[in-house]
Amino acid sequence: NAGVTQTPKFRVLKTGQSMTLLCAQDMNHEYMYWYRQDPGMGLRLIHYSVGEGTTAKGEVPDGYNVSRLKKQNFLLGLESAAPSQTSVYFCASSAPDRKNTEAFFGQGTRLTVV
Amino acid sequence: AQKITQTQPGMFVQEKEAVTLDCTYDTSDPSYGLFWYKQPSSGEMIFLIYQGSYDQQNATEGRYSLNFQKARKSANLVISASQLGDSAMYFCAMRAAGGYQKVTFGTGTKLQVIP
User: Per the CB 3.0–4.6 Å rule, which of A15, A17, B39, B70 could disulfide with B89?
Assistant: First the structure.
C-alpha cells in the first residue's frame, strides 16, 4: 500500500538549475496537489489538478510549472531555481466523489537552493 | 476565496489534560469540509478528523473531537487526555466544492505536551 510517493526526498540545487519533482499515487485519485511548507506559513498551494491533462494555479504558482499527463502522476518543475524556493514540498491526492475524502500526503521533498 | 486562520502559533498542555486548538475559516461556498492534520517532527501529514458543513453533529475520532460552530465559522480541535505523543504541529484545512476541491491550510499550531 504505497499511497502517495514523492521522489526525490532530498535535493540541493544551485541557483539557476532546473529540476522536476515526481509525485505518484496508486489510489486512482482524480485530484492532485503540490504544496510548499515554510516555517510560520503553513502549507501553501502551488498548483493542483482536477484530472488527467488539467492543471490550475494555486496561491503561489510563480516559478513553478506542472504537468499531469497520466492520472497517477503529477510533476512539479522548477525551470530556474532560486534561493526563495528553498522549502519542503508536499504532494497530495484526493478523491472527488465524497466531499469528506481527506487528502493523502506524500512524505515530502526537502529542497535547498544555494 | 477560502481562508483558514489559526491564531495560536504555539500551545502547551499538561499530560492527561484536554486542550483546544482554534481554527476559524472563511468561505462563501455553502458546501465545504473541514479537516485537521497532525504533523509530528518526522514530517509526515497525518489526517485526524473531518467535519462536513451539513453535518448536524460534531465529529469525533477517539480522543479527537471537532467543536464546529457554523455561525461563528469556527472548527476547533479538542484533544482529550493529552499524551506525550501528541506533541506536534496541527493544521486546520478546508475544502470547498466551489473552490474546485482545492484544500487550503492554516499556518498551524505547535502543541507541546508537558510531562
Answer: B39
